[in-house]
Amino acid sequence: MSVRYALHIEYDGGFFSGWQSQNVSPLSVQKTLEQVFFKLTQETVSVYAAGRTDSGVHAKGQVAHVDFAKVYTKKRIFKGGNYYLKNSGVQILDVKIVDKAFHARFSAKSRVYKYILLTRPSDSPLWKSRAWWVNRPIHMTLLQDAAEMLKGTKDFSNFRNSSCQASNPVRTLDQITIEDMGSFLCLRFQAKSFLHRQVRMMTGAMVYLAARRISTKEFSEYLSPGNDGRKPFTAPAHGLYLENIIYDDFIF
C-alpha cells in the first residue's frame, strides 16, 4: 500500500521552464523532483502541485504531493531530497505524511500570489531577477482604484493567455492587498483559482493605470468581455511568487 507525502517547496523560477514536465522542456520543477526521488528511493513517482507556475515564476510556498510504495521517514525525504537538490534552484521546506484523500491541487481552498515592484528611479542588479522595475511615478490612488475594480466575481476573458485551457473564464478574486515598502510595492492576490497568466496580466493593467499609461476607461474595458479583445500588458514573470496555498485544517 502506498503512502502519500505532502511537500512544502521553494524554488527560483529562473532555473526552470515552469512547474510542469514537458518533452521539449526537461528543466521543469516537477521533473527535477521526480528524478531526485528516483535517486533517493529507486521508485518512479509522479509529483503533483497545487499550482502550475510558468517559466521564470518563483515559489515561496508551493505545495505538492507524492506517493511512495514504501514507507520512508519524513527526515529521509526532507534531508535526502535536499541533498540531491543542492544547487538545483529548488529546496524542500517541510514534509508531512497525509491521508490519501489529500490532493495538493484539488484540496486547495485558496491560492495567494504576490508580485514585487521596484519603483525607485534606478534599477537594481540585486533584484533584477526578483522584481519588476517600473521607471515611472506610481499613483497609489489609481493603484487602489484598479484593485477595487478587479475584486469580486467577474469574467476575466481578457486577463488570460491565449493558450489557457480553462473552460470557464469567470473567477472570484477574494482579495488584493497593496503593501508600500519604500522603494518596493508588493501586490497580493488571493482566489480559489486563477486563469493562465491572470495574475501577471492583472498586475500589468494595474501598473499601467497607476503610471497613467492607460485611462480608467481603458482599464474598465478589459473587464468587458464584449470589447474588441484587447488584452492588458503582461507583467514580467520574474516579479511573481506563489506565496501560499490554503487548505482546510492543513498548515505547513
From TrEMBL:
<feature type="domain" description="Pseudouridine synthase I TruA alpha/beta">
    <location>
        <begin position="146"/>
        <end position="248"/>
    </location>
</feature>
<dbReference type="GO" id="GO:0031119">
    <property type="term" value="P:tRNA pseudouridine synthesis"/>
</dbReference>
<dbReference type="InterPro" id="IPR020103">
    <property type="entry name" value="PsdUridine_synth_cat_dom_sf"/>
</dbReference>
<dbReference type="InterPro" id="IPR001406">
    <property type="entry name" value="PsdUridine_synth_TruA"/>
</dbReference>
<dbReference type="GO" id="GO:0160147">
    <property type="term" value="F:tRNA pseudouridine(38-40) synthase activity"/>
</dbReference>
<feature type="binding site">
    <location>
        <position position="113"/>
    </location>
    <ligand>
        <name>substrate</name>
    </ligand>
</feature>
<protein>
    <recommendedName>
        <fullName>tRNA pseudouridine synthase A</fullName>
        <ecNumber>5.4.99.12</ecNumber>
    </recommendedName>
</protein>
<comment type="similarity">
    <text>Belongs to the tRNA pseudouridine synthase TruA family.</text>
</comment>
<comment type="subunit">
    <text>Homodimer.</text>
</comment>
<feature type="active site" description="Nucleophile">
    <location>
        <position position="54"/>
    </location>
</feature>
<dbReference type="InterPro" id="IPR020097">
    <property type="entry name" value="PsdUridine_synth_TruA_a/b_dom"/>
</dbReference>
<comment type="function">
    <text>Formation of pseudouridine at positions 38, 39 and 40 in the anticodon stem and loop of transfer RNAs.</text>
</comment>
<dbReference type="InterPro" id="IPR020094">
    <property type="entry name" value="TruA/RsuA/RluB/E/F_N"/>
</dbReference>
<dbReference type="Pfam" id="PF01416">
    <property type="entry name" value="PseudoU_synth_1"/>
</dbReference>
<dbReference type="GO" id="GO:0003723">
    <property type="term" value="F:RNA binding"/>
</dbReference>
<dbReference type="InterPro" id="IPR020095">
    <property type="entry name" value="PsdUridine_synth_TruA_C"/>
</dbReference>
<keyword id="KW-0819">tRNA processing</keyword>
<keyword id="KW-0413">Isomerase</keyword>
